[in-house]
């Protein structure tokens, strides 16, 4: 089951937060109008679940441990996100907003996150051991508590309206803080680590990404890294909905995406990719007219690489044959190595194939410069130590010196083979 669906009792999380802020169980129970035994039991249950002590009990009060401070930092962010979200949804109101733990429950949050993606509702409901109707019933209870409709009925069933989409996205972001909290506790106690989820664009720079992952594992042998490769807009949606932590590849943030930030790492360049011994190797100056003589393997329309290919021929009456369209790099490489078909690739992405003798990289002065490559993250994101280490490894792997070293090693391997 996805960790983000394992949400602790929100009232218990508030009790933890109050003890951290007020320095004692008595003060926390009085502020929350809850009995001391209830607060003590809630803390004990959370500590048992986490496998670590969050507080030290002293005669002068109850104080956070080192692990507790890590956990409290994330709990503060969890409540900040939820409270800001509820304030946005409520809008101007003369009545003071009740605490979020009185408006919504962990079960309702989980239900909204699941039902906001209708295509997977039945599958996830089965994993959770409940029916889909039970999840929708929880969301309807949430609607009554917050005073807003979250779903609309369509021919395809219940789907989120704009308020529901916004609330689900923000709740994913809040719950991701809980997931980070668990990971940081595991890391601090030596029982595990945070999972780093990276969205990698096609032609992002697999060599640099592999170098960074190997460097991270040398620092953190217990690290867990998941790489997802999809088109840019799918990954951007995943990033905004906290399904991934970052996007590595071409920086192409749309103007409307105001809640993400970009960091430039390096610049790559385009080239013509073909098989070893291709007739184009005998052409001193590869022009668009010459390139129309060959069949092409192209990516989907609208992608940066496809736009680059289309630009080559936009002023020509005769166009080349775009016989095969694929986003699969494995299929692309196989097709190029077994035929005279050609395509445009980045020099970084083709470097390993060149060193292995499968493909060649040919210059073409008609290819435009590439946008920079780097990292895209959510605005206001607080990385864990594991994420910071990975980002440092990415910066190092994409530095000019490291990239030149990698290219040199590949050339040496090619000569030796």
UniProtKB/TrEMBL annotation:
The keyword DNA-binding applies. Residues 8-65 form the HTH lysR-type domain. Keywords: DNA-binding, Transcription, Transcription regulation. Gene3D superfamilies: 3.40.190.290, Winged helix-like DNA-binding domain superfamily/Winged helix DNA-binding domain. Belongs to the LysR transcriptional regulatory family. This is LysR substrate-binding domain-containing protein.
């Amino acid at each position: 089951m996805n960790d983000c669906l394992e949400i602790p009792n929100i009232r218990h999380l508030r009790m933890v937060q109050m003890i951290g802020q007020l320095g004692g169980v008595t003060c926390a129970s009085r502020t929350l109008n809850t009995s001391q035994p209830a607060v003590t039991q809630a803390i004990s249950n959370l500590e048992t679940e986490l496998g670590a002590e969050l507080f030290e009990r002293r005669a002068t009060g109850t104080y956070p441990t080192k692990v507790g401070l890590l956990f409290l930092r994330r709990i503060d962010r969890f409540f900040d996100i939820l409270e800001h979200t509820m304030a946005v949804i409520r809008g101007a109101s003369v009545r003071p907003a009740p605490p979020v733990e009185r408006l919504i429950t962990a079960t309702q949050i989980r239900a909204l996150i699941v039902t906001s993606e209708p295509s997977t509702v039945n599958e996830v409901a089965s994993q959770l051991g409940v029916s889909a109707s039970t999840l929708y019933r929880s969301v309807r209870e949430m609607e009554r508590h917050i005073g807003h409709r979250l779903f609309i009925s369509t021919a395809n069933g219940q789907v989120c309206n704009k308020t529901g989409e916004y609330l689900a996205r923000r709740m994913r972001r809040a719950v991701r803080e809980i997931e980070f909290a668990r990971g940081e506790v595991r890391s601090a106690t030596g029982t595990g680590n945070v999972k780093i989820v990276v969205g990698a664009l096609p032609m992002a720079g697999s060599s640099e990404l592999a170098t960074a992952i190997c460097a991270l594992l040398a620092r953190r042998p217990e690290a867990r890294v998941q790489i997802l490769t999809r088109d840019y807009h799918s990954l951007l949606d995943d990033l905004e909905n906290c399904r991934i932590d970052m996007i590595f590849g071409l920086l192409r943030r749309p103007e409307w995406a105001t809640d993400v930030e970009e960091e430039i790492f390096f610049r790559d360049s385009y080239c013509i990719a073909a098989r070893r011994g291709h007739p184009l190797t005998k052409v001193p100056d590869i022009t668009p007219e010459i390139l129309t003589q060959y069949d092409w393997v192209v990516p989907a329309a609208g992608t940066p690489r496809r736009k680059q290919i289309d630009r080559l021929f936009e002023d020509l009456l005769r166009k080349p044959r775009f016989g095969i369209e694929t986003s699969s790099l494995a299929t692309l490489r196989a097709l190029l190595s077994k035929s005279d078909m050609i395509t445009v690739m980045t020099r970084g992405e083709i470097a390993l194939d060149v060193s292995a003798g499968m493909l060649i990289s040919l210059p073409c002065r008609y290819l435009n410069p590439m946008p920079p490559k780097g990292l895209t993250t959510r605005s206001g994101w607080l990385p864990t130590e594991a994420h910071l280490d990975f980002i440092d490894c990415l910066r190092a792997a994409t530095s000019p010196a490291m990239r030149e070293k990698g290219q040199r090693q590949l050339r040496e391997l090619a000569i030796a083979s």
